[in-house]
Amino acid sequence: MGLELRQQLKLSQQLVMTPQLQQAIKLLQLSRVELQERVEQELMENPILELQEDESAPDNAPETESKGEEHTPMDMGEKDLARNADWEDYLGVFSTSSGASRDAEIPEELPSYETRFSADHTLESHLLWQLHLTELSQEHKEIGEAVIGNLGPTGYLLASTDELAASTGATPEAIDEVVGFVQRFDPVGVAARSASECLLVQLETAGEEDPILLSLVRDHLEDIERHRFKPLLRKFRITQEDLETYIQLIRELDPMPGSSFGGATSPYISPDVYVYKDEDEFVIQLNEEGLPNLQISQYYMEAFKGRGGQEKEYFQDKMRSAVWLMKSLYQRQLTLYRVMESILKFQREFFEDGVSKLKPLILKDVAEDIEMHESTVSRVTTNKYAATPFGLFELKFFFNSGLGLDGGGQVGSESVKAAIKKMVSEENPRKPLSDEKIVSELKKELQINIARRTVAKYRTALGIASSSKRKRMV
Question: Is residue 87 located within the same domain as residue 136?
Fold first, then answer.
């Protein structure tokens, strides 16, 4: 059988994402800060785009040319688009209130400027939370706050006992007592003054009483670090295998217990949408603050009129880019508004009563409600925030799985997490609630069918230690 080359015609349909469609999808999933940077970059690169200075949208279309002048189909399409597009609305004056406008004021009862800061979970906040769960006296808690405030990024105490005594007015004995107390917090070994002290606290908490192991940590960490093993073998009269076992146990300890926590940064979050109550109805208003109001530059439209060749090609390319950017911005705001409107429809009880009333919701529910694809809903809810009467929440927060109720209904997982957090905050520190007890309490109060391992998973996600560790903190 011989091989041969032949030509063949084939007609088929294929879905291709144009660069303009890719741009629209990218804009859809950008956060507010990223969107501002993207628009500013386009303003620098595209002379056809400019900022609209006055409040009223000017007529961006250039004067019509003489009737005798010939036009290409591309020219006519661009001029028609520039003439007929309502660029004032490209950011969307969207609101559920008929009387709302882009100058409408946000009600004062919405979250304040300070609530837009989201503090990371730091070592200091983690230790202070544990400190205030204890039953120490107010004087000892103040000393504990001073100790925690003088910890370095790795968890070591940077201030001496005398320095802490001078700043707090307490006795050195009281300082040492509180320092020893803080060292037993989670992570165990914080507030230590040296690596040896840090590891010894961890061994003591673990119930380790081997005198050889304790002596190795207390007096011979430098010998182990420099691999000076022969003097250790002679001193403790142990074999090489025994020494290797001890060294392995030491390596399993954490010499820098605070390194797993990040720094105390507070990123600023500007909400993309406001939801507030006006009489008996909720109003959705998009946040347009900081988003540039774009328009087509009439000056450059006139300047490129009648040009040909490469100049005409350059103008058409920049014109298409400007028009698609403005259309994409409009579509982004419209989609965000429709998604928020659908979320409000499904989660109305949350906006009325708070997190405890959050219902189960998935992307498919909202996608079917607004007749869009799930991927579009996923993109538009990524890195987008809503200011609600109960605080600032990422749009992803409103989507959560459901847990079955005895009555046949369902309750959202976030509502269950809120209930667990409330139970732990109100528990007796000396008798903390076990996971089994939390299961029974949830069954009693909310009629929820939930497994113990699910409670443990939610508790871990909330950063709450187990009952045995919470009891040890007291």
Answer: no
